[in-house]
Write a structure and sequence with these properties.
Elements (H helix, E strand, L loop, with lengths): L1 E9 L4 H17 L3 E17 L2 E13 L1 H13 L3 E8 L3
Antiparallel strand pairs: 1-3, 1-4, 2-3
């Protein structure tokens, strides 16, 4: 299994909605055979520049292990999720 780092920014929402989005991606990783190593909720922060008329967002950092298919499926779902402003998945060095 490969080690990956995922960071994504969620639109500023209510706490329950933000938790639901985080749980959705956590479940997606685990249901596809991945394993979450670390999940950090950085909280609401001001962004360096405006994205889609949003000046702040809720930042989440997630380190996980899994096959390439897990990262590809996660990327696909992140792209079509309306609550996610921006995301980045990086394969960590061995």
């Amino acid at each position: 299994m490969r080690a990956y780092e995922l960071i994504y920014i969620i639109k500023p929402l209510e706490e329950e909605a933000t938790t639901a989005v985080v749980d959705k991606f956590k479940g997606l990783i685990e249901n596809n055979g991945g394993e979450i190593v670390k999940l950090d909720k950085w909280g609401k922060r001001k962004m360096a520049y405006e994205i889609n008329d949003f000046k702040e967002g809720f930042y989440i950092l997630c380190n996980f292990k899994g096959e390439a298919a897990v990262a590809q499926e996660l990327d696909r779902v992140l792209k079509i999720t309306d609550e996610v402003i921006k995301h980045l998945i990086v394969k960590e060095e061995e």
